[in-house]
Amino acid sequence: MLLDELENGDSAIAQAYSRHVHWGYWDDPASSTNTPEDLASATETMTLQLCELAGITEGHHVLDAGCGFGGTLASLNERYRSVDLTGLNIDERQIARARQQVLPLNGNTVSFDVGNACALPYADNSFDRILAVECIFEFPSRETFLREAARVLKPGGVLALSDYVSAPAFLPLAYAAAMPWVQNVEGSGRFDVRVTSNGYRALAARTGLTLLSERNITPHTMPTYAHLRRLALPQLAGLQVQGFKVMMGLLKLWARTGLLKYSLLSLQKPATRG
Q1: How far apart are CA 131 and CA 229, in angstroms?
Q2: DSSP assignment of the chain, as one string?
Q3: Residue range 238-261: average pLDDT?
Q4: Are strands 260-268 and 210-216 parallel, antiparallel or unpaired?
Q5: Percent of the chain clearing pLDDT 90 (strictly above)
Q6: How far apart are CA 212 and CA 231, in angstroms?
Q7: 8 Å CB contact between 112 and 23
Q8: What is the mean pLDDT of the segment spanning 48-59?
Q9: Would you say residue 195 has pLDDT above 50?
Q10: Does 3.40.50.150 match the CATH number of domain 2-268?
Q11: Confidence check: pLDDT of 95 > 50
Q12: Which residues contact 35 (CB under 8 A, 6 or more apart)?
């Protein structure tokens, strides 16, 4: 839908989503103006929060898994020097747009590949940092992706990602929300939130990573819901309208009550000893 509306020249969609397609971060959520420019600024801030968590520095080779339109790499490309930037996405259309939009600056290299994040097409120990911005809940398996990330990270390398993390009491609903028929009616595709904080620690241990940090930033993301209703509803039809309204209402309720946390997480591959 976004690609179609961008092709059709929808000005509001272009202002809000031409660079980033994910939740926004507001230092002061009450300051949100619910305009496309406001959302674009907030999604850029969210990207910078995650990049800061990753600890990216000059000379790093960075992979953005599930890179979308290349907005995260565009931000890094503008702010850093002498970094090697690689974006990966399974959707050829998004990669085509990313290649058009992001050209190297500041002595950086930029490349985009079509590929599967759960079967990364890269050699072992290739990257200093991996980013996964609001996409891991769409992958077939968190564990498979984390195992692949551990494989291609250099020793001591860091994976920084954003994800919905469930409270233990929410897991029964999380399993219900992951049912295909629910997602088909709602209309936004795969949404698997069947993971808790303890579940992430266990996943990290099984995949050769250490969970360094988990930061719940849910309050800073709440204005996104109003933006989504304003921008997405006009693009939907039939049952998807009601499905979207119900799902957005439930997500907002679950977030406000602490049942579903929007979190930034960092995981590290152990450094080589000896």
Answers
A1: 27
A2: -HHHHHHTT-HHHHHHHSS--S----SSGGG---SHHHHHHHHHHHHHHHHHHHT--TT-EEEEET-TTSHHHHHHHHH-SS-EEEEEES-HHHHHHHHHH----TT-EEEEEE--TTS--S-TT-EEEEEE-S-GGGSS-HHHHHHHHHHHEEEEEEEEEEEEEE-GGGHHHHHHHTSHHHHHHH-S--------HHHHHHHHHHTT-EEEEEEE-HHHHTTHHHHHHHHHGGG--THHHHHHHHHHHHHHHHHHTTSEEEEEEEEEPPPPP-
A3: 86
A4: antiparallel
A5: 77
A6: 36
A7: no
A8: 97
A9: yes
A10: yes
A11: yes
A12: none
Q: What is the pLDDT of residue 274?
A: 43
Joined tokens for residue 198: 């303890």
Active site residue 186: no
How far apart (Å, rounded) are the C-alpha atoms in residues 248 and 240?
12
Q: What is the pLDDT of residues 155-169, one digit of tens each?
A: 999 999 999 999 999
Q: Pairing between strand 84-89 and 61-65?
A: parallel
Measured in whole angstroms, the distance separating CA 150 from the mean position of its chain's CA atoms is: 18
Parse the chain into domains and list their residue ranges. Answer: 2-268
The structure's pTM equals 0.93
Task: Name the one residue in this structure whose structure tokens are 């490309």.
Answer: 77
**Which residues pair with residue 89 across a beta bridge?**
114
Residue 60, pLDDT above cutoff 80: yes
Choosing from 134, 138, 148, 214, which is the catalytic residue?
Answer: 134
